Amino acid sequence: APIGCLLRFNSKHIIIKYKFEKNGNQNEVISQKLRDFVLIATDDYPQTKITEELQNQILLTLMSKIDSVKPKKAALCFIGYSIHMGALKISCADLYSKEWLQRVVPSCIPWTGAKLRVIGPEILLKPIRVSVRIPDRILTSKQILSYIALQNKDVDTSGWKVEKAKEEEGGQQLIIVMDESSWAAVMYHKAALYVNHDLVTLERL
């Protein structure tokens, strides 16, 4: 029978494992290799995409659901999560955990009026890779994305990922992955965006 629960929850990943009794006073942690994942999106995806703030609200709601579960045949085990093309991707250690998550997601209401659903990979927005040269070697990738979001109207960088950053003479070259709707917003500015004190051009690869 389960005697407790280990929970690790931070900005990078969530790991939920249950302790089981073994030989009276010894414990073992049930741990399995990553097997599958579930994609969680808003009901009107891709119009409303999961941001880091919404992600945290969803995870807190799921944690409360998990707290009310009494594992019988198996323990719920989730290993890792991330925002992927505007959806929340949660990795599951086994089929039992995946099926439980798929069942419970539609009943989650992490914020007022929220409607969540599980989607297949084919529904996801297509990833787009772009290259941009930043004439500043001091700025970090996080700072660059923050400047872009603050200085350019309707450009949301919360779902962007810097795939590669390479220092060059007088600056740095970045490879950024974004979704189709983000690229459309960039093209509204004719692919020229303000970053700190500079105007840079993004080139689709």
From TrEMBL:
This is DUF4780 domain-containing protein. It holds the Pfam family DUF4780. InterPro entries: DUF4780 (IPR031961). Residues 38-190 form the DUF4780 domain.
